[in-house]
Structures are given as structure tokens and as C-alpha cells.
């Protein structure tokens, strides 16, 4: 598998944490990026997040061009139906709800060309179900990026029984062009990464509930004992407790009792303790 050419133009739907990161890496690669966000304040915040990310990369010496030049390739779009037709790839990164994702993907499909690849960044939802309403499901797959997108090494490529091999091949080339590695997995609940990562995180929360150890000790157990780069509770804080809860609920329905969300996770989400983004989750980030 070799590195492919950069896509000339990419659409990214959703300007949250993941969407902004995905926009940043493709703009850095040289693609024109059209970032779809309905809320103008969130769109401005996403642009700022990309600008901050680029400044950080420049500071580390990992950016070959000027941040302003990269930012110049980023355009804001107010809805998926207004994407230009000539984008090579559209990546959807809106909240983890099948109905919302299906709505924006079908809207995008109406405006883009027949050769555009459509992808979802879902962490857990069925790719086949999300693609079921599309006219060209053979051009659709999962492209699961990790947080923070610019620093993470992996993109999990999830293909359905309908995804064309040529589409998977093209997407893998783009992942390599981004300087990242890919794994290809069959569409199944939680794929390879979320299924294992979420299970570990949920068990760590149950251990906290049982008073086995405190959050630092549980994370250190895996970081120092098993050489995981980040413990399961710090990782849950990074992903966002709300995002993790949504994934756990879905995996509970599809894979069974072992994914039942613990009470403590629900309570923290209800209190607005969502992890790093709110300053508090299982650890204090303030
Ligand atoms: P987020 O909540 O930070 O961002 C979602 C964004 O989508 C928001 O800015 C919202 O305004 C926007 N949005 C909602 N409806 C929209 C619409 N119809 N059109 C355009 N924009 C719309 O969520 P986050 O964390 O970026 O997650 C997005 C997706 O990525 C989810 O499917 C999640 O499961 C997945 N994911 C999240 C990871 C994480 O660590 N947070 C890691 C890997 C995947």
C-alpha cells in the first residue's frame, strides 16, 4: 500500500473538536477544505481552533508552510447542501446520533459529484445503517480519526459489504498522505478501537465505583504497568464523558450487558462534568 495524492478538495461536516482537527490536517496537506457548521459562532470557534493548532505545529517545527497560508485554504459553509460538487471526499463529524448523521450525509450526497467519497467519523454507529439511505453506498465508508487529530497516528477505515474496493484503496492512500497509518476493519459494533477502548474505560469507572483505587492509581496502573500511553480514565476525559456515554449506550444495545454504562458515568454527564472540555471529569483539568 503506497501513499496516494492529496485530495484537491475536502468537505468536513461539523466544526467540533474532531471536525476542526480533520479540517486542519487536510488543509495542512494542501487540500482546499470546506467546513460545514450551522452555528456561525461555532464556525468562528472552529476556525480559531484550527488557527491555534497550526500555530502550535509551526512552533514545534512540524508545519512546512505559514499558518496563514494553510488557513487560507479553509472556507466556512453553512450547510451540507451548499458543499461544492467537486470535493473528492466528505467526512461527517457531527454528534453521535444516527438520525442526524443520515440527514447530513443524504443532503451532502445530493450536491457532490458521483465520484466523491463519503465518509463518517462515527466512533460506534453501524456504517451500513448510516449508508442505507444513500444512493451510492459503494462510495461510503467509515473513516475513524482519533483525538487530537493532528497528533494521532491512526485512522480506522471501516468498510461495509457494499463499499467498493477502489474506494477503500483511495481512502487508504489519503490516510498515508496525511502521514498516518490505517487499519481496515469490517463494519461491526464499535469496530476494533472503540470496542476495546470503551470496554476498558467502563471497567475502570466500575473500579472507581467499587472503591478499588482512586483515578490516578487506576490510570497509573495501565500507563506504568502496561505501558499504555494514556490510562482509561484520562482517555475518557479526553474523549468527553458525554461522547463516551453515547457510544456505551449504543454498544450496550448491540453487544450486550458488558457495555452497560455505569451509574457514575451517567451522574457525571448529568452534572456537566464532561472531561477536559469542561475542566473536570474523572480528573481535575482546571
Ligand atoms: P462535538 O460535539 O465537539 O462536535 C460536533 C459538531 O457538529 C458541533 O460543533 C455541532 O455544532 C456540529 N453540528 C451538529 N449538527 C450539525 C449539522 N447538521 N451540520 C453541521 N454541523 C453540525 O463532537 P466531536 O467530539 O467532534 O465528535 C463528532 C463525531 O466524531 C462523533 O460521531 C463522535 O463519536 C466521533 N468521534 C469523537 C472522538 C472524540 O474523541 N471526541 C474520537 C473519534 C470519533
UniProtKB/TrEMBL annotation:
GO terms for molecular function: 3-hydroxybutyryl-CoA dehydrogenase activity; NAD+ binding. Pathway: Lipid metabolism; butanoate metabolism. Belongs to the 3-hydroxyacyl-CoA dehydrogenase family. Gene3D superfamilies: N-(1-d-carboxylethyl)-l-norvaline Dehydrogenase, domain 2, NAD(P)-binding Rossmann-like Domain. It comes from Amycolatopsis mediterranei (strain S699). This is 3-hydroxybutyryl-CoA dehydrogenase. It holds the Pfam family 3HCDH_N. GO terms for biological process: fatty acid beta-oxidation.
Amino acid at each position: 500500500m503506497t501513499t496516494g495524492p492529496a485530495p484537491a478538495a475536502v468537505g468536513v461536516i461539523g466544526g467540533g473538536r474532531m471536525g476542526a482537527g480533520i479540517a486542519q490536517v487536510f488543509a495542512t496537506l494542501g487540500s482546499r477544505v470546506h467546513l460545514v457548521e450551522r452555528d456561525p459562532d461555532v464556525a468562528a470557534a472552529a476556525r480559531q481552533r484550527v488557527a491555534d493548532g497550526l500555530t502550535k505545529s509551526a512552533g514545534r517545527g512540524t508545519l512546512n508552510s505559514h499558518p496563514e497560508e494553510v488557513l487560507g485554504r479553509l472556507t466556512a459553509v453553512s450547510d451540507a447542501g451548499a458543499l461544492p460538487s467537486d470535493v473528492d471526499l466528505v467526512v461527517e463529524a457531527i454528534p453521535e446520533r444516527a438520525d442526524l448523521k443520515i440527514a447530513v450525509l443524504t443532503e451532502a450526497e445530493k450536491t457532490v459529484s458521483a465520484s466523491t467519497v463519503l465518509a463518517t467519523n462515527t466512533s460506534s454507529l453501524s456504517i451500513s445503517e448510516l449508508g442505507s439511505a444513500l444512493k451510492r453506498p459503494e462510495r461510503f465508508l467509515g473513516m475513524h480519526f482519533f483525538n487530537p487529530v493532528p497528533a494521532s497516528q491512526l485512522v480506522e477505515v471501516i468498510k461495509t459489504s457494499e463499499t467498493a474496493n477502489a474506494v477503500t484503496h483511495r481512502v487508504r492512500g489519503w490516510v498515508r498522505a496525511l502521514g498516518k497509518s490505517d487499519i481496515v476493519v469490517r463494519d461491526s459494533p464499535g469496530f476494533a478501537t472503540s470496542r476495546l477502548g470503551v470496554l476498558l474505560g467502563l471497567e475502570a469507572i466500575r473500579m472507581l465505583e467499587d472503591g478499588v483505587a482512586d483515578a490516578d492509581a487506576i490510570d497509573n496502573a495501565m500507563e506504568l504497568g502496561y505501558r499504555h500511553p494514556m490510562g482509561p480514565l484520562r482517555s475518557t476525559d479526553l474523549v468527553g464523558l458525554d461522547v463516551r456515554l453515547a457510544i456505551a449506550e449504543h454498544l450496550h444495545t448491540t453487544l450486550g450487558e458488558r457495555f452497560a454504562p455505569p451509574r457514575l458515568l451517567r451522574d457525571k454527564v448529568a452534572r456537566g462534568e464532561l472531561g477536559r472540555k469542561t475542566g473536570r471529569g474523572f480528573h481535575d483539568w482546571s
